[in-house]
Amino acid sequence: MGEILVKEKEIVIPGQDLVKGMDFLPGSGCYRAGDFIVSSSLGIISVNKGLVKVIPLSGKYDPKVGDVIIGKVKDMSLHGWFLDTNCAYDGMLSIREADEFIDKGADLSKYYDFDDWVIAKVVHVNKISNVDLSTKGPGLRRIKGGKIIEVTPSKVPRVIGKQGSMVSLIKDKTKCKITVGQNGRVWIQGENPEDELLATQAILMIENESHIDGLTDRITKFLEGKKK
């Protein structure tokens, strides 16, 4: 019978023993060493149905097919645009993956210009980490208005919440439009700067306190207290 050696959501360090026994499988952020599963990074432990993972407290975004991200146009060529994706590799948005038809030889800056923010989807990542993007699909587009903030990419699931519960809570209490990119960038657009600031404060609070139990209740009290 296996034994869990740390508490759920405990912060662990590289080299720390997490569980003992062959009943568990190592996931991301950890590895097996004999009868033990050991942490390979600084992060928060999660054990679910025998799978052990360590969610890193920091680190760059690792792109995966299907991710919706927020990128910034940094360059362009005859064939499309290069976007800063908040990871080690730029993303390529080709003309054929743009959300509208573009004539050959058209001025591409009329569609996406330098420093524009774009909501896009990762459609391909190859072995040398070339990242292909698309803006074909619901909600994928150039961003107009609002503000962009950044959180640690590993904290994105907590910002979104189970089935979108956390971000829905913030939207409801602040009346802001919010898109959370898997690469840690968040777009916020409210009816006024005060609402955008409140949404920003709530999201950064989630990032800083993501490992603490009762987070949803604390965020609810924070938002309701500020809106009185």
Broad shape:
flat
Give the second-level CATH assignment, the architecture of the largest domain: 2-Layer Sandwich
Determine the CATH topology of the largest domain: Ribosomal Protein S8, Chain: A, domain 1
Structural class: alpha+beta
Oligomer: single chain
Count of discrete domains: 3
Distance between the termini: 52 Å
Rg, nearest Å: 20 Å
Largest sheet: 5 strands, mixed, barrel
What is the string of SSEs from the N terminus onward?
Answer: EEEEEEEEEEEEEEEHHEEHH
Low-confidence stretches: none
Per CATH, the class of the largest domain reads Alpha Beta
Strand order of the largest sheet: 9-10-11-13-12
Report the count of strand segments: 17
Binned, the helix content reads 10-25%
At the fourth level of CATH, the homologous superfamily of the largest domain is: K Homology domain, type 1
Give the mean pLDDT.
91
Proportion of beta-strand residues: 25-35%
Number of alpha- plus pi-helical segments: 4
Labels describing this entry:
OB fold (Dihydrolipoamide Acetyltransferase, E2P), five-stranded mixed barrel, four-stranded antiparallel beta sheet, 228 residues, alpha+beta, Ribosomal Protein S8, Chain: A, domain 1
List the helices and strands and how they pair.
Blueprint: E1 3-4, E2 11-12, E3 17-20, E4 25-26, E5 30-33, E6 36-39, E7 43-48, E8 51-56, E9 68-77, E10 80-84, E11 91-94, E12 117-125, E13 131-134, E14 141-142, E15 147-150, H1 156-160, H2 165-174, E16 177-180, E17 185-189, H3 193-208, H4 215-227
Parallel strand pairs: 4-8, 11-13
Antiparallel strand pairs: 1-3, 2-7, 3-6, 5-6, 7-8, 9-10, 9-12, 10-11, 12-13, 12-14, 15-17, 16-17
